[in-house]
Amino acid sequence: MRYSLKQLAVFDAVADTGSVSLAADKLALTQSATSMSLAQLEKMLGRPLFERQGKQMALTHWGNWLRPKAKRLLQDAQQIEMGFIEQHLLSGELNVGASQTPAEHLIPDLMSRIDNDFPELRIKLSVQSTDNVLQGLIDYKYDIGIIEGRCDDNRLHQEIWCRDHLTVVASAHHPFAKSDRVSLSQLEQARWVLREHGSGTRMVFDSSIHHLIEDLDVWREYEHVPVLRSMVANGQYLTCLPYLDVERFIETGLLVALNVPELSMERTLSFVWRADMIENPLVECIKREGLRMMKGKSVF
């Protein structure tokens, strides 16, 4: 084999950044050394890996084919190096993208377990909307994602981790708070504050309610759950959030869960990864530890 790990690292960095100069900065190389390594790799393989589009470098068909294989080789090399240095079989760095609900309520426990059992496994966590996590996986920013709801992109694999459900809540002084049952017509008359489009919570809510209520009065949309909780607790709004996000506030009486029999909003929290990714022991470790953590637990 004539290519080197350094050349593959240069290829991967250019693919990540879209730029030779940024890749050089990332790898602490000179721009000329980076350009030379990439040119040598393309010459050895006999195929162009990038199309030069002004200052940007876009992957060709061959570059897209090579990228997951190069990623795996580089990950294996890193694991070999760290494993021998630290004498740990599972070592290296894993980039995880997670949506807000699992990031806040489940991942801290998962990371604590992994830190205890696999101290040389480094996890870099990024909290994004479900849409952004999925796009990050496609763009190779993340090795694995943890999302709310469904993933319909055939470039990605999805495996259910656990289940939770959404609930409609109001403040304790809202007119609906003392009702045993809230009708769809009452929901239609209410003023709503909701998660932004692209979040897993909003996807589930919209798909559950769109065929029941034609025109919902959505007053505000926010990315952050604490903003929505505060607005509802102190105003005359309704919102729909994961039960995990409102459980403590319902128990203290600050919020009230409304009974809407027509709405059933159970959903899944899932692991997601690229379909073309060769088996990665670090990703398998995350999935295995996550499933062990949830063993015996029912829907939240």
Automatic annotation (TrEMBL):
Under the heading InterPro entries, the entry gives: LysR_HTH_N, LysR_subst-bd, WH-like_DNA-bd_sf, WH_DNA-bd_sf
Keyword Protease on entry: no
Name the keywords, alphabetized. Answer: DNA-binding, Transcription, Transcription regulation
- HTH lysR-type domain ranges (all copies): 1-60
| Highest taxon in the source lineage | Bacteria
Q: Which GO terms describe its molecular function?
A: DNA-binding transcription factor activity; transcription cis-regulatory region binding
Entry keyword annotation includes Transcription: yes
The similarity comment for this entry is: Belongs to the LysR transcriptional regulatory family.
**Under which name does UniProt file this protein?**
LysR family transcriptional regulator
Q: Which organism is it from?
A: Vibrio panuliri
